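Exercise: predict the fold of this chain.
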Amino acid sequence: MNRRDFLKLTLYSTAATTLGNPFMQALAAHGSPHRTLVNVMCLGGADFRYMFAPPPSDTEYANKYWQARQPLYSGYADYNSAFGSLYTAHNAGDLSFGIHNNAGWLKTQYEAGNVAIICNVAGSTNRRHDQSQLIVNSGDLNANQFVYDRDGWGGRLAEAIGEANTVAMTHDVSVFCKGTQAANRNAQVIHVRDSRSFALSHGGNPNQEKVARALKNYYASRSQTIQDKPDNWPYHKFFQHEQKLRAFGDPFKALIEQPENTLPIDIVKLNDPGSMGVLNQRGFAKQCANVYDSLTGADLFKLRVASMEYGGWDTHRNQKNQFENNISDIFGTLRGLDMLTSNLAPEVWNNLVFVFTTDFGRQLKANGDSGTDHGSGNYMILVGPAVNGGVYGEISAAGGPAPYDVQGADILGRTSFERVLAKACDWVEPSSGVQVFPNMAYSDLAQFPDGPILEDGVDLSTLLS
């Protein structure tokens, strides 16, 4: 047994002994653990370069980093003081880099070997938010502009698994979730916008009961007459959602209302304005609650793919405050994902992998408003016990993929996002990556120069175990 597994086992055993055996309670509360991918889309173009900074000891690289990005660190006289205040140094082999202190949970997971940082990832082919988000959510570099009635890579993964659904925890259902059936993109999608108010109402008084019955009868009768409607008929989705709510609503409501499935107070506090733990974006707190409850109903939902979102990454101005609030909400100690994952049974947590995607990267040099403008290359982050942690690709070099001394320069994309996401798909369902990302079949880059690229020296074959 290695040190990482020993520490985990000790932690779980101590918790079971001192807290009235919550380990067994949590196992009973959640469905059978299946490998599940949770995609967290960071809307707006997250500058993950800011979260992983070079240490001052890497003199040449740190000097160029500071010269290019000094406006982002207002209030600090030099890079030594900025790094010492904001970052904690970590080692990956003979490489050293800093992780921002606001991402305390991420730091802990990195130290446990559960975080993979894939450097120099090439994603969107342009710098427009709408088009880039469509490309990333669909997993298709050739996604047509403004065509949102299409399939996404999460939906294709659910189809590749077969008996599985993508569960959207967000306000709206993203393209990421949608399937390939043109007439029913939501065939394998369940929308859990609010897990504690999911089922259809049966009415609270005689008048409401009449309305509820009338609507049920209406949808039941009309569902037999819509089969001949064209695929682009705009009302298909209303019937699709009604059918899902009718099928899953009451059983799911009965499940989570059982006393043992009470939402943990740690997660409740994330959305409580009177709590010290309330998140800056309470919508993400709701999503964390939705994930927890949906894992409780994982068998009912056939949950294998989940969709989360966090907006507010378009940091053209005052990037420091905005970015640091964002990473605190998601990655901070006693914050969003920390409170979610720490309340899961080990068997459930061990079968989760979080994948963090975003529109695009940002330019390496700061602009005149203490922010950064739209770029291209970026880092991708995977978190979970199944992740073989570490740094994949060149993260710290004075030249190479990060030419800080060139105005308007981006991180140079060396690894296609398809490469990384296909490996995540293969972990959920073996051999599904090439079904979800057909370009992965083009492994001979000499013959197929437009195929997915991979940085020299990077091996993603053991990214997940």
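Check your answer against the key: Residues 1-28 have pLDDT under 50 and may be disordered.
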